[in-house]
Amino acid sequence: MSEHTPRPAVSAEGLRKSYRDQVVLDGVDLEIPAGTIFSLLGPNGAGKTTMVKILSTLIRADGGRARVFGHDLAAEPDAVRAAIGVTGQYSAVDGLLTGHENLMLMARLHRLRGAAARRRAAELLDRFDLAGAAKKPAAAYSGGMRRRLDLAMTLVGSPRLIFLDEPTTGLDPRSRRDMWQIIRDLVADGVTVFLTTQYLEEADRLADRIAVLDRGAIVAEGTAAELKRRIPGGHVLLRFAEARALESAARELGGETDPESLALKVPGGGGIASLRGLLDRLDTASIAPEELSVHTPALDDVFLALTGNRGADDHARKANR
Question: Most buried among 193, 217, 256, 318, by the most CB within 10 A?
């Protein structure tokens, strides 16, 4: 690595983990640039949570090596822990304590005392729009408020890398979008986010890069757009005012007609060049569609194509709720 190349937030080579005779991770390689959102997708049992536990030093890998901001997980676990924060799938909030008390407890764990602890708690309560509920028991908080408090507690120590393990599970759509904005704001401040999620739309909206984990191995990695281009099924849908125009367009372009809705589905990726060519052919033939829409494969199509197991169907159903 040259002196001008930024150090990655996470780099892993050949990570392996087994429980008895069950292989959970089978030689996983990862590199996550600092200041980005990386999303790890996979069906239940694919190894996502195991990966998070290894990278956050909660368990040891059986083989391979990994570094967090240059610190080796095996040789420098304390330095790794000082650089990271973890917000798990299940809230770590103590419902009997107030929001302020939860944050003060976390501050003491990070060796903040007195005015410094109170100042940090106040900053985070304000940042996460919890100041008005600071003195209320966390048990009285809504689901979205509890998740915000949970993340605020993770940030007490100002981590450079945050592991978010299914952070919006159980939240209503408005609370989920509020959490998305919080995550974007964190990254804008320079934090790196390692996100695992059951909601494919969440990864599509947030992640700079996505990896798909299946049966302990990374089966695909790239941006959401790159992954979608790997899957066939893109098409242009044309709708016409008259059956005669539909028939003429089908003769000119081919494709699949739907006489009932006067629609023609023409295979294609929807790129600018191909779309312009399609319209030129229609113009030359004096055929004018009433509507045109471009359809590309969704991330759930990618997921289902790449993970051929029973967990995929459950995953897709959750993504579409």
Answer: 193
Question: pLDDT tens digits, residue range 119-142?
Answer: 999 999 999 999 999 999 999 999
* Bridge partners, residue 95, by sequence: none
DSSP 46: S
Among residues 195, 229, 263, the one where a domain terminates is: 229
What local confidence, expressed as pLDDT, does residue 233 receive?
72
Q: Would you say residue 203 lies in a domain?
A: yes
State which residues form the domain around 67. Answer: 10-93+141-229
Cite the beta strand spans of the chain per DSSP E: 10-19, 22-32, 37-41, 63-68, 71-72, 84-87, 161-165, 192-196, 209-214, 217-222, 235-239, 256-258, 263-267, 291-295
CA dist., res. 311 & res. 314, Å (int):
5
Q: How confident is the model at residue 229 (pLDDT cuts 50, 70, 90)?
A: confident
Instruction: Indicate whether 175 pLDDT > 60.
Output: yes
* CA triple 101-154-110, angle to 5 deg: 70
pTM (2 d.p.): 0.79
pLDDT confidence tier of residue 235, bands split at 50, 70 and 90: confident
* Furthest CA-CA distance within the chain: 80
- Which residues does residue 258 pair with via DSSP β-bridges, in sequence order? 263
- Residue 132 in domain: no
Output the domain CATH number for residue 271. 3.30.70
Q: Report the alpha-carbon distance of residue 307 to residue 95 in Å, rounded.
A: 38
